[in-house]
Amino acid sequence: MSPRRNTPRRRGAPARDADPDALMLRVTGGQRRETGPDGEWVLRQISGAAAAKTYRCPGCHQDIRPGTPHVVAWRPYGDGEDRRHWHSSCWQRRAHLR
User: Fold this and answer.
1) Cα separation of 97 and 94, whole Å?
2) Under a CB-based contact definition with an 8 Å cutoff, are residues 70 and 64 in contact?
3) 73, 91 contact by CB (below 8 A)
4) Which of 4, 39, 70, 96 has the greatest CB tally within 10 Å of its CB?
5) Looking at the DSSP assignment, which residues form a beta bridge with residue 74?
6) What residues does each domain of the chain span?
7) How do residues 23-69 score in pLDDT, each as one tens digit?
8) What secondary structure letter does DSSP report for 42?
């Protein structure tokens, strides 16, 4: 059984989950650009609910377990092969790791 809605939907408005891309943006928080001492990056916040696989953090070389919120970062240019999953805290202190 699905949970009860607290507010009625406007007549004719599409359901929130009708567009899978909209669901992805809502769950992950979308993308943003960030410039730091190591250059420009595109970031996406991954919520714990959306984190389904285990990744290796390049900052601390420890596993990011399923269900752990984290950051995915890649360069804005190129083919996306440099996408890396980071612990949020490791990403914030990455300038001190080099």
Assistant:
1) 5
2) yes
3) yes
4) 70
5) 42
6) 39-97
7) 333 334 578 999 888 889 999 999 999 999 999 999 999 999 999 99
8) E
Residue 8 near residue 23, CB atoms below 8 Å: no
* SS3 label, residue 94: helix
Angle formed at CA 59 by CA 56 and CA 63, multiple of 5 degrees: 25
Question: What's residue 81's pLDDT?
Answer: 82
Number of H helices, E strands in the chain: 3, 6
For residue 14, what pLDDT is reported? 53
Residue 1 has pLDDT above 60, yes or no: no
Burial (CB count within 10 angstroms: exposed 0-12, middle 13-18, buried 19+), residue 53: exposed
Q: How high is the pLDDT of residue 78? A: 78
